[in-house]
glycine oxidase
Amino acid sequence: MNVFDVGIIGGGVIGQGIAYELSKAGLKTAVFESGEIGGKATSAAAGMLGAHSENEKRDIFFELCLESRNLYPSLAKELLEQSGVDIELVQEGMYRLAFTEEEGRSLQSLADENELEWHSRENVLANEPHVSEDIAGALWLKHDGQVKGSSVCHAYAKGARKYGASIFEQCPVFDVIKEGKAYKLVTSQGVFICGKVVVSSGVWSGFFFEKLGLRNPMKPVKGECLAIKPKKLVINKTVFYEHCYIVPKKDGTVIIGATSYENDWDTHPTVKGVSELMIKVQKIMPEIGSEPVVSAWSSLRPQTADGWPYFAEHPEHEGIFFATGHYRNGILLAPITSLIVKDMILKTNQYERYVHSFSLNRLLSDAKGR
């Protein structure tokens, strides 16, 4: 019979990470993915672990990002041992460029002894000689790094299966129905009974918010990227300016991203979007304009009203949990999200401050104010 302790709706990096941690803890776990494992936003991500690149404020969200980033070195080793998959962790740091003296002064003010270090124009060009000579300098984000997002997802999935998890691909969930103390998941592959349910299906999580009597807080933000395979340029570190980044991968590919179009459900890259990226990236690295483009793609990021994710149990339906709304930070936040959800389900209260800060109270308060 199709009975599980926990059913996870969504098989991207968040869902697979949760499945890994829960099955490792001994729970009989199932993942229901409407397409292929990691086939949507996860596979489209550049894989940046940018705790600092995503945050100006030093608030609870920054702490969440930092803690999750710091889990990756040990996680990379664990997943390699459990799954045989190398998640391609790179810890070369990132350069956040300044092009004006004012931008330079602003970035210098952020420098500290541990995480952030100001580099002069000459220092940056010595390390990354193909960066524009027009820069004023850069802030080196020493410990921010990158991984291959799809590899993280598949490593989690293989590890979860090793611990006994079942993963159903091409298996959309149509309904979640209360069945005694459990829940009935109606899917394209039949009916499954799950003691608890986790909704972690990115921007499509909104469907389940509404199904379960809550306002849909999710908004799609289309992001487009392109990849080049440089024949001449050697790029060592991730480099970014404003919302354009250059991410060198281990296989020699360089990912350039990303556009940002709110409330756009279209998943095809456009001439407009790719052209926008090409203009921006040549300001950062003029010589990159002569390198061959090998591919372009787009995906939908799940954004919430305040840009923060939700880690929460449904206020009226005990045993239904949400872990969604990660926006641009799904890869970065996958390790900590997986542990937080395990914490909520097992009631160990190790991450109570995050559960409190990223609860559905934000959504409910917003609804009352409307």
About this structure: The CA atoms of residues 209 and 369 lie 19 Å apart.
